[in-house]
Specification:
Length: about 160
Amino acid sequence: MARLALYPGSFDPFTLGHLDIAQRALRLFDAVEIIVAANPEKKASMPADVRAALIQEATADIQKLSVRTFEGLVAAYAEARGATALIRGVRSACDITYEAKMAIANSRLCAELETIFLLTAPAYAHTSSSLVRDIARWGGDLTPFVPPAVAAALRRPYA
Ligand code: COA
């Protein structure tokens, strides 16, 4: 049976760090589905379908990788979808406290669901979506941080 992993996040926006995690997850699973979900702690700067469309554009040449938006509990969706695991990238020890809480909650919601943490590549360890939004706001060079499709879209609202 094909082993599917879900990679949920708010991806506001999707960065090169996220891309690296998705590509590495594909080495471990038969297919990976990126889930653009809602984090109640964050007010999104772009609608979920726009964030998903940008990810689609940025990953169009990657096989076995799909993208969708989802509203609701990721664990319930994973169970319904028959996914084996959730993928999350961790950048530093600081991320672990937050990630552990989510992983434990998700495993209590769906006992079969494992969360796999992949260590973010050193080049992206200090990247975050909020940092990218700030650089975009002031017209800075986004090429070291996000795929070209995302950089082009971010230049538009602040132009
Ligand atoms: N490279 C670069 N940045 C990375 C990264 C990497 N490899 N991994 C994480 N980050 C950064 C992101 O850029 C982002 O930065 P920001 O805080 O400045 O925005 C931050 O780490 C985490 O964002 P992201 O990975 O997009 O996810 P999130 O933590 O916002 O996602 C959800 C949380 C959406 C997965 C979670 O709220 C969820 O599952 N919601 C659905 C409802 C649900 O099931 N709730 C129960 C959860 S137990």
